[in-house]
Automatic annotation (TrEMBL):
Residues 164-283 form the RapZ C-terminal domain. Pfam families: PapZ_C (PF22740), RapZ-like_N (PF03668). Residues 1-156 form the RapZ-like N-terminal domain. This is RNase adapter RapZ. The keyword ATP-binding applies. InterPro entries: P-loop_NTPase, RapZ-like, RapZ-like_N, RapZ_C. It comes from the Bacteria. One of its GO terms (molecular function) is ATP binding. ATP binds at residues 8-15. It comes from Candidatus Flavonifractor merdigallinarum. GTP binds at residues 59-62. Keywords: ATP-binding, GTP-binding, Nucleotide-binding.
């Protein structure tokens, strides 16, 4: 069981860390009171694998001392529940800049205390938590994509590609381009099975239609070029921090050409190691 306690400085990026871990399959609870952690751990341990990856956020919002957190961690140890603390920090100047950009109020910047004083006070208060951290991430110079990459390195399953899902959609241009599409490819230049009476009632999922399309050199050439393009793009989208990539392939009605090519593209993406789903939006339209 992966049991992660996320803590750190306000404005350092704990919310982004929690969101990325949630994308990676963790069950995330924000601002959980320390006293409830042992009871929550009991529920997770009794869940028979349902909650085998858990991340709990505990920070200065829970109070200006962390005695309760250390008591809870001691109880987790007595229960035999292994945990690790992930501490997120950034430089004082960076945190001040982020707060000025968002116009949020620092939890400790009250009663005439300046933002710089609040950050320094929080650093001092959190020092004992930082000392017990198994992982410390400084987000001062980290882009969102690099932060996500660091979390994948620490908590991924060893298969980085799994962090980005690819959805391949077939559609008919006569019904409009899918609004969620990131990449759109038009395959109306390919020979159209619609004009063959025996193929017209079939779809691109039927072998006769697929065989008809892939016996043409332009289909083979298109797939070769598209596979080269995707081999180039997929790692870049992954490195940029994208979690879902939608590829839309369209023909006139969305029944034959786009369907067959969508299946071929989805199979290629899976071969490259990315989880891929296929959806045929207009295939059953009359």
């Amino acid at each position: 069981m992966d049991f992660i306690i996320i803590s750190g400085l306000s404005g350092a990026g704990k919310s982004k860390v929690a969101s990325f871990l949630e994308d990676m399959g963790f069950y995330v609870v924000d601002n959980m009171p320390a006293a409830l952690m042992p009871r929550f751990a009991e529920l997770c341990l009794a869940g028979k694998g349902k909650y085998d990856r858990v991340a709990l956020v505990n920070d200065i919002r829970g109070g200006q001392t962390f005695d309760g957190l250390f008591d809870a961690l001691g109880e987790l140890e007595r229960m035999g529940c292994a945990y690790k603390i992930l501490f997120v920090e950034a430089s004082t100047d960076t945190i001040i800049k982020r707060y000025k950009e968002t116009r949020r109020i620092h939890p400790l910047a009250r009663h005439g205390r300046s933002l710089a004083e609040a950050v320094q006070q929080e650093k001092a208060t959190l020092a004992p938590v930082r000392q017990r951290a198994a992982y410390i991430i400084d987000t001062t110079a980290l882009s969102t994509a690099k932060l996500r990459g660091e979390l994948l390195r620490l908590f991924g399953d060893g298969k980085e590609e799994r962090a980005m899902a690819v959805n391949v959609i077939s559609f008919g241009f006569k019904y409009g381009i899918p609004i969620e599409a990131d990449l759109v490819f038009d395959v109306r230049f390919l020979p159209n099975p619609f004009y063959l009476a025996e193929l017209r009632p079939q779809t691109g999922l039927d072998e006769p239609v697929r065989s008809f399309l892939f016996r043409y050199q332009q289909t083979l050439d298109f797939m070769s070029h598209l596979e080269s393009l995707l081999s180039f793009l997929l790692p870049l989208y992954l490195a940029e921090g994208k979690t879902v990539l939608v590829i839309a392939i369209g023909c006139t009605g969305g029944q034959h050409r786009s369907v067959a090519l969508t299946r071929a593209v989805a199979e290629f993406v899976r071969q490259k190691g990315y989880p891929a789903s296929e959806n045929h939006r207009d295939m059953t339209r009359s």
